[in-house]
Structure formats: structure tokens, C-alpha cells
Amino acid sequence: MLYHLIEYLKELGIDIPGQGLFGYLSFRAIISFTFALLISIFAGKRIIRWIQKKQIGEEIRDLGLEGQMQKKGTPTMGGIIIFLSIIIPILLFADLTNIYTILLLVSTVWFFLIGFADDYIKVFRKNKEGMSEKGKLIAQGLLGLAIGLAVCFSDDIVVRENVQVGESIAIEATSDSTTVDAGTALGIMTEKHDVIKSTKTTIPFVKNHEFDYKWLSPFKGTFGWYCKWAIYVLMIIIVITACSNGVNLTDGMDGLATGTSAIVGVVLGIFAWLSGNIVNAEYLNIMYIPGSGEVAVFMSAFVGALIGFLWYNSFPAQVFMGDTGSLMLGGIIGVCAVLIRKELLLPILCGVFFVESLSVLMQRFWFKYTRKKYGEGRRIFKMAPLHHHYQKEGIPSLIQKPAKALPEAKIVTRFWIVGMILAVLTMALLKVR
Fold this sequence. Notes:
The protein is mainly alpha-helical. It has one domain.
């Protein structure tokens, strides 16, 4: 709103010192991060007190994990802090007419409501199961479908192919401005492009970093055209649903999901800025996506909110985000990746979330299979999701290492380190062909 107010005053010819800064994505990303961080830290303390006053505490099942029962009664639904810390800076500093900002705002509110409803059922109705798995999957799938249809039919969501930028000397100071377009900056840039609706996305290791979903369609012609978009929409639904549930499964230790999500958010923000800047897109030989630079502003607020929340969520946690936060964080990550055409990089970038989810699927499948075959269920891991495997000892399983349980803080820190390594690797893949 502040961004639009300044733009309106500019149209009226009213000059305010510093108003030109709001035309730069970099400035709005920095200020969004700062505001989100401050809101999360200072408002978070009051929200935690309010949660404690309402006696909204975490119900803990005794799984025999070290220090687990000490967490009983810790305030939950701290995702409210993250939600407010993201929404307020975005409403102030983002371009609210931008299609990418709109879709991310809608997604944030939608997943927040799903998580809030789940926590509400657990806390206030004393139903430990919360929303049914089927109910959550349907709600997540509906949002994925909405995003997929927007990508298919919105004229504002396009990519530009065959981009050729000429001399880029002296545009460094203006290349991140939202008002500068190739071919207009000082008259020294030239651009050749085709603006198209595309089912292409980014993959590593190949020359042009591109994969087209139409290659999966067994049909040609008009029916093939419909088929490729159907495949793309289905993939979008799967990605968004998987990301939301992946973060939800990872949220089992103090600061684990918070810190790992922040790392992922930094990389996605960088990718968004690069994809929305024609000079950087041409240099890195990646798709130029007009308007996607606004996603960088959103992800800056996302990262700032998480770092501020980590102030209270780090071990020993003063508050848990609950499903209110974890489902929302995963949903935002999935939607962001889809919008900037980086969803096929998520198995690497979100490797921690991917392995956590895979460990649960493997454990369930193996337990059911061995129970049917041998009459007794057996385990691959001592406990799933994977982070709990490192907390357990003395349970028969295929994988016994480590023999002794590790402290929670050590497990979380090592998962963060793995997340950082995967983040650097993902960014490095932009130059690997």
C-alpha cells in the first residue's frame, strides 16, 4: 500500500525525498526483510504471551524421545507470528497489482487457514488427529489447481524466449529497477524475444536448462496441446501438495523446519530476482519471466519472518509453529518454485524435506509389507520422520547407525548444514551444463 501510495504521489507530480528507491526491487526486498524480522521479534513476544494466556499448549505423545515430555504445554500455533510478519510488509512494500504477488498472498492465506483449522481441532476440540489426511489433501489440491489454472490462463504469466541482450554497459545501476525494461535503458540495450504461454521449466545439466512438459504428452495436435497443459497442472498440484506436507513432516524439532525453510527461501528469492531481470537471465541462460522479480520481495519477507521466529523457536523452543505455520511455509515454497519455473530443482534444494517425506513413505510401506509377509511389521528406520531416527536407540531396524541417540540441538544444526550445502549446490547448477 505504501508502494502504491508513493507511485500515486509520483503521478501527481509530488516529489518526496527517497521515493525513487521504491522503484527498485533490491530496496523493497531489503526493507521487507527488515520489517518482517522486526515484526516477528517484537510482536512475536506479545503473541506468545497471548497464546499462553489462552492456554494453547502443545499436546505431546510419549514416544520415548529424550527431552520430549519437557515440551508439553509449550505454546503452539506460532505460525500466526510468521503469517503476520509476512503479510504486513508485503501489503506495505510489494506491488499488489502484480500477478505473482497476488497468487502468493492468496496461497499464504489459504494454507494458513488449513493449518489453523488443523491446530484448532487439535487444541480446542481435543482431537489429536486434527483434520483428516483426506481433507487436508483436498484443500491443498484445490489451491494447487487454482495456481495451475492461473499459470495456464493468465495473460500476465508468460515467459520470453530467444532473449538476446546487446551491450549492457552502464546499466548496472538501473538493472534491478521495476521501471527499467530492456531496450529502453539509456538506449543501449537491444532485445529480441517471443512472449509466449509456455509449459517449459528449468532443469540442471542440459544446455538450455529447460524441460518442456509437452514432451510427456503421447498426443500431437490440438489434443496434445490440451494434454500438455493437463500434465503441467497435475505436476503443479503434486509439487505444491508435496512441499506443504514435506515441511509439515519436518516440523518435529526446535528450529528444524524454521531454519531449513529460511535457507530454501533465500535461494528461491535469488532465483526470482535473476529470472525477473533480463540482463541476469540472458547471462545465466535461463528463462526471463517478466514481473517475477516481485517474488523476490515476497521471499525476503518470508526469510525475515522465519529468522525472527527462530529467535523464539530455537532450542529450547518458547513456541512451536504448529500446522498453522508448517503447512503454510511448505505451500509458499511450492507455489514460489512453480511460479518461477524451478519446481524440478526442489528435490535438490528441498532435499531435507524430500528425504523426511521419503523416510515416512518407506517406513509405512516396509512395515505393512513385512507385517503381511512375516506376520510382524519391521522397520527401516528406528523412527520416522528421519530426524527422530537420530533420537532413538535400542529399536530393531534395518538401519542402526547411529548406535547412540544424538542431542536434539546437534541434529537440527547438522540438518541446517545439509540444507546449506544443498542450497549452494542448487545455485551452482545454474552454470552446470
